[in-house]
Amino acid sequence: MTSTTSMMCSEITEQPAALRETLAALLPLTPEIAALGRETRHVLFIARGSSDNAAVYGSYLLQVHCGRLTSLASPSVTTTYGAELDLSGVLAVAVSQSGRTEEIVETMRWAAGCGARTVAVTNGAGAPLAQEADLALVTRAGDELAVPATKTYTTQLAALAVLALGLGADRDRGQLAAVPDTLEASLDSPDGRIGEIVERLVGVHGAVVSGRGMAFSTALETALKLKEACYLRAMGLSYADLLHGPIAVVDGGTPAILVAADSGPTLPGMVELAERVVATGAAAYGIGGGPDLGAACDVAVPGPDLPEWLAPIGLAIPAQIITERLSRRLGYNPDSPRGLGKVTQTS
């Protein structure tokens, strides 16, 4: 069995401070972001792994609140196929915790060579990604020693929220500035239902994790974390994709973990999904979603009190805590999942 503490647990608790420092450093850069925004129309996100899940949040955020068409890059288009595209008018946003993943650096260089302007979102101030971008949004997460990303992930989300403000999102920056305090209060009063969900997940071999809209990014990240640290066969699926067939795999041995903000237009659909899952005899566990989702699920953990556009930053934390506790409960070391390193190189 592993010890009762882990680096991952410590780094989860460091997130309010990391977010506070990140926002203090990045919010003053919104005029520079705005300048790049005036030269571009579309946004191309370049990322892998947890950073790709952060990019999904950025994609929804910029489309809904900035009115900009976004897409997620396929790095193999350049690294494997060597294709050339016309990217004039495109803002390429490369997201990488380390800033040293060669595939991501190469793809950002390719985008610049095809006419794009570039932004790096990274925790590596001196990394190639930050040095070569037109503008670097360097997060202030500090050293992250556990392999599963926690504070580097949520500070990426904060950086993308700053990016949205710079690109014209009509959102209250005071709400963003208040996020660290909200999360600090949440971490100071952990919800006992987290332990109940952990115990219910002991013994299952698979789970479906679903979200919609802004919260879809957190569903994907939760599934990734459960695979990385708990070796659970977790599928991250959007609400719509889940209903188009894969819901058939949800049964007595395969619970659904449903992630939602406490408000917003996607919440009613997530509540209906929880009711449908429970009606089939399967278990539904909620993360966030307020009292409505809580009432529809077998067990639900409340998310921090944040508006929908910022909710994914807060929703990631109970998901991280569930993962860390379940990993240790299963006798694993959440800090060093087998077969994984902190920087993954692909070609």
UniProtKB/TrEMBL annotation:
<dbReference type="GO" id="GO:1901135">
    <property type="term" value="P:carbohydrate derivative metabolic process"/>
</dbReference>
<dbReference type="InterPro" id="IPR035466">
    <property type="entry name" value="GlmS/AgaS_SIS"/>
</dbReference>
<keyword id="KW-0677">Repeat</keyword>
<dbReference type="GO" id="GO:0097367">
    <property type="term" value="F:carbohydrate derivative binding"/>
</dbReference>
<feature type="domain" description="SIS">
    <location>
        <begin position="33"/>
        <end position="173"/>
    </location>
</feature>
<protein>
    <submittedName>
        <fullName>Glucosamine--fructose-6-phosphate aminotransferase (Isomerizing)</fullName>
        <ecNumber>2.6.1.16</ecNumber>
    </submittedName>
</protein>
<keyword id="KW-0808">Transferase</keyword>
<dbReference type="InterPro" id="IPR001347">
    <property type="entry name" value="SIS_dom"/>
</dbReference>
<feature type="domain" description="SIS">
    <location>
        <begin position="197"/>
        <end position="337"/>
    </location>
</feature>
<dbReference type="GO" id="GO:0004360">
    <property type="term" value="F:glutamine-fructose-6-phosphate transaminase (isomerizing) activity"/>
</dbReference>
<keyword id="KW-0032">Aminotransferase</keyword>
<dbReference type="InterPro" id="IPR046348">
    <property type="entry name" value="SIS_dom_sf"/>
</dbReference>
<dbReference type="InterPro" id="IPR035490">
    <property type="entry name" value="GlmS/FrlB_SIS"/>
</dbReference>
<dbReference type="Pfam" id="PF01380">
    <property type="entry name" value="SIS"/>
</dbReference>
